[in-house]
Amino acid sequence: MKVTVSHQEDMKFEAQTQNGSFVIDCPVISPIEYFLSGLIACSASDMIALPKNQGHTVTNLAVEGDVIRAEDHPRKFVKLHLTYTFDSDADDIKAARWVMASVETYCSTINTIRDTTEISYTIIHNGTTIRENEKMISGGGSKIDLGEIDACCS
Question: In this structure, is residue 97 part of a structural domain?
Answer without folding.
Answer: yes
